[in-house]
Amino acid sequence: MNETVNATTPVYDVVGVGFGPANLALAIAIEEHNEQAAPEDRLTAVFLEKQPNFGWHRGMLIPDATMQVSFLKDLATMRNPRSRFGFVPYLHDRGRLVDFINHKVLFPTREEFHDYLQWAADGVDHMVRYGLEVTAIRPAGTAGPAGTAGTAGAAEASGPVVEVDVAAFGEAEAATYRARNLVVGTGLVPRLPEGVRSSERLWHSSEFLHRLAALPTDEPRRFVVAGAGQSAAEIADHLHRTYEGAEVVAVHTRYGYSPADDSPYANRIFDPAAVDLYHGAEPSVRRTLMDYHRNTNYGVVDMDLIEELYRRSYQEKVRGEQRLRILGVTRLTEVEEGPDGVRVQVRNLATGETETMEADAVVYATGYSEPDPGRLLGELDAACARDEDGRLRVRRDYRVETAPEVEAGIYLMGGTEHSHGITANLLSMAAVRAGEICDSLAARRRSDRRAPVAVTG
Predict the structure, then answer these.
(1) Cα-Cα-Cα-Cα dihedral sign, residues 148, 149, 154, 158
(2) What is the per-residue DSSP string for 263-281?
(3) Distance between CA atoms of residues 125 and 47, nearest Å
(4) Cα dist. 285→295, 351, 423 in Å?
(5) How far apart are the C-alpha atoms of 68 and 347, rounded to whole Å?
């Protein structure tokens, strides 16, 4: 235990681990809850973020790349259409509301949406501590006084709490935070093929723009892009447009890029009601629903981009050149990095034929994995219930089922696809999901405050 923790250390209603869009949406929901709640029902919260400031997929803020969700599915509107934290108030504040309306688009650029997220994060920055990495989480004894210094309406705590240790970066200091509830929102983990490590010339798509800016050559000759999803197609498109003297080779095991199903009925899988349906279904039904609708989100590409890449490739054939090569039914079999480039071997899965080429860099747009919060939870993990597949059992309000001795609430902001469906890690449900967790936290605070206090002696 940190030596600074004692009976007077504040106990928050909730400590949030990570501060990406999901926990940002929760901070906004808590802010708006506190503005309307009675003093004794207000929630105290702090969010701990490893980055020195807010940032969301900065490595993929490719110019002109657009969002795949409507601007109305922002951090607040689906929960509270009158919220001052919505995308429309953001546009008004930035002086672009009329311009955006005239633009006649539902899907803003990723660059603009990142600016919106930063704008929203600035509005709740009093809840956030940047430059702190969570190193340990453990159960603690009986809680001390609730709230933080200067917080009005703090009630006396009851029941066990959790302690969260953080290591510091930059000017921040190591510390221990205490809370009655924990919300884990650390985001997805970039996934690379087995044996591949990120380096100067081997990149995951999440670091694309950062690595590209540091490429050790001003005149690249060839890029290889592995993957068949939206990120892979966007990267191939950007490289082909940006480096007119370079060849771009797209390698994937499919015959070609597959379009995303964004039809109105298929999009019902992203509705709030779909989460109720999914969570209440039998495991076999959940698996069937996921199989049916994977093509709404995973390994698929917007049709407009598919057609643009095909048009460009065709025009190159007309001109007798081929700078954009799409190698379907193909896999990277060997990748060897050298001082001046990367030697790559690709194999056609249908014919067995191989081709060896030299490239300046290989980009792996190979997706992300859901993190298992077990490591982070430390001692608490043993008290968390798991299903027959070893996954955490999660209630409808995103709270992990735990043994009776753990009274502190552990909520998951992501990593719940098996229990809550395809929206578990997506922006499309961020506002509604945050509202549901905020409501659960508020209900637990009211319950704790009204619980009888045992009298001894």
Answers:
(1) positive
(2) -TTGGGGGSHHHHHHHHHS
(3) 9
(4) 17, 38, 16
(5) 32
Q: What are the tens digits of pLDDT across the range 338-385?
A: 999 999 999 999 999 999 999 999 999 999 998 888 888 988 999 999
Strands 368-369 and 361-364, how do they pair?
A: unpaired
- What tokens does 160 get? 């066990």
Sheet of strand 341-348, all strands in order from the earlier edge strand to the far edge? 330-338, 341-348, 354-359
Q: Could you tell me what percent of the chain has a pLDDT over 90? A: 84
- Residue 151, judged by CB atoms within 10 A of its CB (0-12, 13-18, 19+), counts as middle
pLDDT of 402-429, one tens digit each? 999 899 999 999 889 999 999 998 999 9
The three-state secondary structure class of 314 is helix
Burial class (CB in 10 A: 0-12, 13-18, 19+), 145: middle
Rounded-to-integer distance, Cα 26 and Cα 47, Å: 10
Say how far apart CA 344 and CA 358 lie, in whole Å. Answer: 6
> Which amino acid does the sequence have at 12?
Y
**Residue appearing with tokens 């808590």:** 30
* Angle at the Cα of 381 from the Cα atoms of 378 and 382, rounded to 5 degrees: 115
Q: Are 295 and 261 in contact (CB under 8 A)?
A: yes
Q: Is 326 helix (H, G, I), strand (E, B) or coil?
A: strand
Distance CA 437, CA 354 (A): 52
d(Cα 450, Cα 198) in Å, to the nearest integer?
52
Q: Which amino acid is at 188?
A: L
Residue 164: strand, helix, or coil: strand
User: How many C-beta neighbours within 10 Å does residue 356 have?
Assistant: 10
Indicate the residue type of 294. R
Q: Which residues of the chain have pLDDT under 70?
A: 1-8, 141-160, 170-172, 449-457
| Token duo for residue 234 | 């966007």
Q: What is the pTM of this model?
A: 0.92
pLDDT given at position 451: 56
